[in-house]
Design goal:
By secondary structure, this protein is of the alpha+beta class. It has three domains: 215 residues, BirA Bifunctional Protein, domain 2 (2-Layer Sandwich); 96 residues, no CATH class; 93 residues, Anticodon-binding domain (Rossmann fold). 40% of the residues lie in helices and 25% in strands. It contains 17 helices and 23 strands. Strands 3-9-10-16-13-12-11 form a seven-stranded mixed sheet. A five-stranded mixed sheet has the order 20-19-21-22-23, with helices on both faces. Helix 5 crosses helix 8 and helix 7 packs antiparallel against helix 8. The longest helix is centred in the first third of the chain and has 27 residues. 34% of the residues are buried. The structure holds adenosine-5'-triphosphate. The site of adenosine-5'-triphosphate (ATP) has 16 residues, from strand 10, strand 13, strand 16 and helix 13.
Amino acid sequence: NDDQFKKVIAHAKEYGYVFQSSEIYDGLSAVYDYAQNGVELKKNICDYWWKAMVQMHDNIVGLDAAIFMHPTTWKASGHIDAFNDPLIDNKDSKKRYRADVLVEDYCGKLEAKIEKEIKKAKKRFGDAFNKEEFVSTNGRVLGYQEKIDTILKRLGKSLENEDLADVKALIEELDIADPVSGSKNWTDVKQFNLMFGTKLGASADSAMDLYLRPETAQGIFVNFLNVQKTGRMKIPFGIAQIGKAFRNEIVARQFIFRQREFEQMEMQFFVKPGTQKEWYESWKDTRMKWHLSLGLGKDNYRFHDHEKLAHYADAAADIEFRFPFGFKELEGIHSRTDFDLSQHEKFSGKKMQYFDHEENKSYVPYVIETSIGLDRMFLAVFSNALMEEELDNNTTRTVLKLPAVLAPTKAAVLPLVKKDGLPEIAKQIVDDLKWDFNVSYDEKDAVGRRYRRQDANGTPFCITVDHDTLEDNTVTIRHRDTMEQKRVNIEELRDIIKKEVDV
Ligand code: ATP
């Protein structure tokens, strides 16, 4: 749904959520800045995650490791040898693409066809429509699904075997064209390492090659024993971290979905070998519940269990979200075995073992990882919230129905007019509420226009001070989603808002 996606990007800019980085210099490709509202939304997503993962689990603690790490880290983790993506150049447009993304986009188009069939049938059958039944019996839908499965299976296999010729053959067979120029004139597929390199130290001969971390996880692994010992942690326990990661993505379209500098919220959960299957299932469940708790709609999520597993993993699944451009990965849950810790043990020569008092033995723990992209979560929340609503009086309104707990500003306080002492009362309400929430003051334009502005901004409540306030200390509180207005006492405001925005 291209139009919807364009609206999302335009709205993010117009309302101070996301700007292109270095815009005055025509921007830097796939790098973005979060503006006054975006930074608040992002922070609220972080808090929501941190609270659920760290505060609510007495066996999970936090960490903030440096972005720079000793270069051997990336040898041990396998990133130097194997953090590659297949790339292909288009000879005509001179543009460079990730070959696997081109194939996946093709499958996304087939998925969109399935969605269209479902929508059509829903309309036709009304209440009698049963999605599961329709999908399992409709020949055309089954055909598309079968094709998607076959293509992805083959792509997975050729990537796993590093059979780049087969990736190229697949692109040719599917008749995929350059999304920009429409040309099908490709070069061969090559491998491309995604890590950004830099140097530490001034003199050329002593400078050390460093990398900007491509994931936050390794900072957790190398600190595993430090945290375990100083925190006296007992297995099973977890370490959580939010931080920047960098990848030199070859194709960086889709706005903040795929960036070169982005943020991850990761948690590594250390368990006794042999118990990883249970913990993997349990974390899949816990993470899905976290997503559903935000109320973005159950139908917008699905699991994608990996058939193709990285050599170190014994199970892996993605939580996919229905973005404006189709279902795509939002979070990964991986059962990583003891691969990372064993590798660091091997490369550092330091023991990475845990002494289990109950078992009276030492072992290298197994790890379950949950890894979610903060920016992708931002896009999921933001794109899902943006809608145009038809109103009774034949007008439309643009409203950003962000979950109240995540909204950048919880309430806007509006004096009906700019005189008669109303601004002073409104400002006093702001001063009282700002100890608990982000609130804003707005006195410009007619009150109807201010409501619309706050709707588009995602503010869950508008509080209007009018002449009656002078008499009885009451104000109008208007709810963004229902547009319902209620007369309440100023003293009640804090509790009313709290009820809605507290987790
Ligand atoms: P993809 O297949 O989309 O490239 P990935 O499988 O490489 O993603 P992981 O390495 O599992 O991703 O990273 C964990 C999470 O980090 C992803 O689920 C995603 O939300 C986020 N992420 C990864 N790469 C990017 C990126 N370039 N921009 C924004 N977020 C990203």
